[in-house]
Design goal:
With 385 residues, the chain is mainly alpha-helical. It has one domain (6-152, 195-384). It is built from 16 helices and 2 strands. It has helices spanning 6-36, 45-52, 57-76, 79-106, 119-133, 138-150, 154-157, 164-177, 197-211, 215-243, 253-258, 267-279, 281-285, 290-300, 302-325, 349-376, and strands at 115-117, 188-190. A two-stranded parallel ribbon has the order 1-2. Helix 1 (6-36) runs antiparallel to helix 3, helix 3 (57-76) crosses helix 9 (197-211) and helix 6 packs antiparallel against helix 9. The longest helix has 31 residues, at 6-36. The radius of gyration is 21 Å and the shape is globular.
Length: 385
């Protein structure tokens, strides 16, 4: 690995920061929805698309985490240094998921009965696994990543090839890798398994080789990759609907097309989300003005934003409930993000989006301050946030 020229790297990082910042903002919509009590994906068009637009977040996080690792590896110049960084940062993310983030979701210490393996858990372990792939040629890493994505169902069948005694003893561990029907660890809610997400991160790592090309070639390749993935989704998704109609499903065809499986993320889900995200990179590269600057600020400090936004939303939800109900009802959020707000106490979409806008506006100033601190003090522990 050799360092990339400073100017070119800055341009590419700016475009990634803008897109990453956009998905960070979108993520807050869904987490406000969680505390509002509104169900994910329905039943109205407003709630459906409120949830759907946030589907782009996790794929973009994992994919661009891989791309950022590639670019950071070029700066470090040694695969060993990059692998060490990925293992250290990955384990830190896992620790944060199990402690700080879990408390931010629930505001309680009942760790014995509820712990979440969420998106930060997934990103952390994927970084640890990516550390073993960065020693390979970039094309090999990308090929492995795409193979994991498109042949992910193999991981459901692999345990069946093991002797029954071995299969039963490792079953609870395998459920962290890919759902195979084993009994899960009591008290652990597994929201994100590692497959196919390690594949997404590995593919994003290989995508970094595109991001170091000359600007015109880079933009052309981003459009080719992004538009091709989107077209594949549209063609394959329409074929699935046509060949496998769901009898009794009265939803519009558009809803059925866009309602792809996220847990675990199916091939169609990843094509639907990553295709447009990659295709938007050339536009983000030329983005100027105050709005793109705001998005880039969020994108430069994604972990700092993430650590702040969950407790901020949680506190806002308690405040809203107090103003509306005269009580904060902490019991409704004891297992967040799996909330249990009674239907008659759920928010409407206007209130949801008002709270979202206020929180994002407040977080911008905190993120702008931290981005400045990080820029002035490069290296050290700040590089892990």
């Amino acid at each position: 690995m050799t360092p990339a020229p400073g100017g070119r790297a800055a341009s590419r990082i700016q475009s990634i920061d803008v897109v990453r910042g956009a998905v960070m903002v979108l993520m807050a919509i869904d987490h406000v929805r969680v505390y509002s009590g509104l169900p994910a994906g329905g039943p109205t068009a407003g709630i459906f698309f409120t949830r759907w637009v946030t589907h782009f977040c996790a794929p973009a996080f994992a994919f661009f985490a891989g791309t950022s690792a590639f670019l950071y590896g070029r700066k470090l110049g040694r695969a060993s240094a990059l692998a060490r960084y990925l293992v250290t940062r990955g384990l830190l993310l896992v620790l944060l998921e199990l402690t700080v983030i879990r408390f931010a979701w629930t505001f309680n210490f009942d760790y014995a009965n509820f712990v979440l393996a969420g998106v930060i858990w997934m990103l952390g372990w994927s970084m640890v696994l990516l550390a073993g792939l960065v020693w390979l040629p970039t094309k090999a890493t990308g090929t492995i990543g795409l193979g994991i994505i498109f042949f992910q169902q193999i991981f459901r069948e692999l345990p069946l090839a093991l002797p029954a005694q071995v299969r039963n003893s490792i079953g609870w561990i395998w459920e962290f890798i890919y759902p195979a029907g084993f009994k899960r660890w009591d008290g652990m809610a597994i929201l994100y398994v590692l497959v196919p997400w390690i594949g997404v991160m590995a593919a994003g790592y290989a995508f970094g080789a595109i991001m170091i090309r000359e600007p015109n070639q880079r933009r052309r390749l981003c459009l080719i990759v992004g538009v091709s993935a989107t077209l594949c989704f549209l063609i394959a998704g329409c074929l699935v609907i046509f060949l496998h109609p769901e009898h009794g499903d009265a939803r519009p065809v558009l809803f059925r097309l866009l309602d792809q499986k996220k847990y675990p993320a199916s091939q169609l889900f990843l094509l639907m989300t990553l295709g447009p995200t990659i295709a938007l990179l050339p536009l983000a590269e030329h983005a100027q003005g105050w709005f793109s600057g705001i998005l880039a600020t969020f994108g430069r400090v994604p972990m700092f934003y993430y650590l702040l936004h969950i407790p901020a939303i949680h506190i806002a939800a308690l405040a809203v409930m107090f103003l509306r109900e005269g009580s904060i009802h902490p019991e409704w959020y004891a297992d967040a993000p799996f909330t249990s707000v009674p239907p008659e106490h759920r928010w409407g979409l206007p209130l949801l989006y008002l709270v979202f806008a206020l929180i994002v506006a407040a977080l911008y100033f905190a993120c702008r301050w931290f981005a400045g601190v990080k820029a002035r003090h490069r290296g050290g522990w700040l590089r892990y946030l």
